Predict the 3D structure of the following.
Amino acid sequence: MTTRAMHQATCLILTVLAGGSRHGSQIITGVHEISGGRVRLCVGSLYTALDRLRADGLVGVDREEIIGSRLRRYYRLCLAGAGQLPAGPDQLAARPHLHVGDADRDAAAAALCEHFAQGRLTADELSARLDAALAATTRGEMSLATWDLP
């Protein structure tokens, strides 16, 4: 596996696949849902990202089927990919559709403040991420505020 900067769309794709095997349009819909409508993947962008993730050993082909006369390929998260999932204070991305509560939002806010104190975030970044974390209703939304932090 090569080391590359993890882009937001890549993290969202991995997060969607953490919920199980999915085909292309299901991945696009899942990314749109867990991003709260903020990220819309184009088909070309999705398959470019999936090809890169497959080459890196993070995603694999689960199965293929013919629907009408078209091939439908299902992708799954590999063990190496599960280790790359975006995570918050308590591995929030593991089940992106689960709802978060006030305690989860408070924990994410505390973690973000610690990252700010360590110099990993600017004041503007902290403010934007706190807004996102405190407004989050699902784990997938919560992970958007913390996905690129150690």
